[in-house]
## 1
Amino acid sequence: MNFEYTEEHLAVRDAAREFAQTELLPGVIERDTEGKFPAEQVKKMGDLGFMGMMVDPKYNGGGMDAVSYVLAMEEISKIDASASVCMSVNNSLVCWGLEKYGSEAQKEKYLPRLATGEIIGAFCLSEPEAGSDATSQRTTADLHGDHYLLNGTKNWITNGSSASVYLVIAQTDASKGHKGISAFIVEKNSEGFVIGKKEDKLGIRGSDTHSLMFTDVKVPVENRIGEEGFGFNFAMENLNGGRIGIAAQALGIASGAYELALAYSKERKAFGKPISQHQAIQFKLADMATQIEAARLLVLKAAWLKDQGEDYAFASAMAKLYASEVAMNVTIEAVQVHGGYGYVKEYHVERLMRDAKITQIYEGTSEIQKIVISRSIIR
Ligand code: CAA
């Protein structure tokens, strides 16, 4: 067993930390207040190789391992979780799925631009009536010769308006249940594809979350990913990796809030000494640090298993379940350590607390992670 990072891991982590401090921190409060997508910053993340970190260099990717990816995700999420969810979806739900299951023609057409952030992608599974119960897809794709006609509505789509390429899950044969679900690549400018309103959210307010409407959208057969009927398994496999990304995001939100609370506790004085010298605060810091370390180990273990080519569905569900709960606990405590200052925007921790909540909801709620974990234990 080896708990040491390689030099490459440390270099990636330091580059992400530097980028987050210099490019994401300025303006993060304003973007949150205005609900503004960090378009310029995401472009720069692409230039630095953060949008296609694990993609093979032959498709312009970074060729890095999943451990490097989670280290970068943690650093970027410490500062701006709206930017990091865009990064997570592009890396793990779009690039990974395309590279693993796409045809050579699909990879050549889309991956090089996705991996460099020249364009970004979205993953469209959720619907108004199919969230946790993802097999209840109402969106249909009917075959008409050399193309499908796509009809339906998708909800809560991250990168909803900023993406150029959408991986859309749809029902191709309702009689076959989840075996009748397929996956398609849909381009933004397709006729009949309408981007609905932007959601006004509690947290990750800079992330552009939209509903999407498809009315007789023509999708060429060559844009289907894998065989007909493979779409649900495709979505599940994608989400196993996606959940590692979101677990790393949750870890970053927690560690960002903890670092702020620790620094503040050393500066703020009460009853004649820094509040870090009061046991009430020391115990909070000790609990926060312990939970973060445990979450980090689960996240790294899931990423490491992925890098070893081992099954990581169980580990990614555990990492996401635990890290998202830690993100919630730690951010609430970080606000408490800051007292009244924690309740105002200037000190960042209230934003991190709002951002933390989504990590218990998207890419499978905590309850869904418990289903995945318990099925694995019991089978
Ligand atoms: N990994 C691999 N395969 C999986 C899997 C996993 N984690 N979970 C299920 N499957 C496979 C099963 O093996 C089965 O395949 P076969 O028939 O080939 O054997 C198939 O999927 C159906 O599985 P179940 O019978 O278990 O289906 P179910 O309906 O009982 O439950 C579920 C499945 C686990 C609850 C699933 O619906 C689920 O994960 N729901 C949550 C959906 C989700 O995470 N949505 C997030 C939206 S995306 C998002 O948030 C992105 C964003 O923008 C940030």
Note: The radius of gyration is 21 Å.
## 2
Amino acid sequence: MRFVMKFGGTSVGDAEAILNAIRIAKDYLQKGNEVVVVTSALAKVTDELTEISQRAVEGNLEATGEFIQKHLKKHTEVARACIHGEDHLRKVLDDLDETMKELSGILKSIARLKELTVRSKDYLLSFGERLSAPILWGAAQDLGLKVQWFTGCDTGITTDENFGEANPLMDITVRNVKAKLEPIIAKGELPIIAGYGACSPHGVSTTLGRGGSDYTATLIGAALDADEVIIWKDVEGLMTADPKIEPNAKVLHRMSYAEASEMAYFGAKAIHPRALQPVMNKQIPVRIRSSFELNNEGTLIAGDREVKTDGVVKAVTVVDSVAMISVTGAGMAGLPGVAAKVFKVMGDADINILMISQSSSEAGISLVVPRNKLLRAKNSLELGLLGTELVKDIVTEDDVCIVAAVGAGMKGSRGVAARVFKAVADRGVNVRMIAQGSSELNISFIVAEEDGPKAIRALHDEFRLDTAQQSLN
Ligand code: ASP
Ligand code: MG
């Protein structure tokens, strides 16, 4: 069988975790499988790169110097602890040195110019994986494997220039990835790919969005017609709810692509929201499992949304850091084109809308947007609409969250919404706005941010998610 396996930040967080990851890959190879490894940056490194980019743009040269020292030390120590062969270690340390010099140069330029564009930021953020991949390479060499490592760009993953959240250009990517990796796999060697980063057709560095090494893995999986993509993490799989909120949360053993995507969009951080797109068409299964608990098989994502299940709601998730905007005015009723204007304004301001609802009186449209875009959204709407006499008022609230109940069994099953809202109301939680997609795969609603956990626990109890899993699988 052919596997593409991605190791997340914690699964390559230190020397021990890296050795464990390489042993897992080796085990699959020894059983006669073909394997491609995709790696994340060492745990937290991308977050720290994001932070240092802020210090740098403030002109803080000292902080950038400290950052380089700290990360050179950290990566060097990890490399020394998991690579023992002198030659391999030397090669990796040279590699790390050189990459650090490049990184240092970039940070210094940002600090001197006090300028950071989305374009240069993507270049900067791709360094975490450029530093982790060679360490995995060395560790794999040490364990006697034949290995080559590549950046996403070298592998041929090609995207548009939507920096920060670039979109893969599938045709070129598939062609490049096949041409690059098939010969290596055919020789029985192990390719290790730095996840997250890619390149535009002009060779400019891009990234696939935070958590994007999942996406790297599924893109490669689709290009190589893998039998399965495995996402190794430090959690056991997708869960019925965030265990930090609901201690009785359970691992979901099976989800359809549509359900898992819906969960990812609605805050379950276990997989990158767009990562399932490339594999869905080809029906390549994706398994999310823990690299530290090998006895557990994790969550298998496969099949259509029509998967027959006896559970209605399978999981509940919460998205915080959102805000609600209500655009109101009696003049809006019966007038075609108001919604179009609202959405055009938002689109022109480059603001992603997470939820929409309009009451049938047509006197108001409510939108939910990322909280950090609220000010821009409000200003743009005021500039674009208040003069038109249709819209009287634009009201915003920023202390809200989205709660979503997800499950394919909800489709065509009556009374689910009634149960959802009764359960929430019984706990004294006030619902501010409701939306159900016509896919009927989820019901999502807005509550005060402080009520989010209460709503999650209410739904988890109502739909018996702590016990439902056994009967689902
Ligand atoms: N290192 C990147 C991030 O933390 C990509 C990833 O880990 O998937 O967002
Ligand atoms: Mg990460």
Note: The CA atoms of residues 396 and 433 lie 13 Å apart.
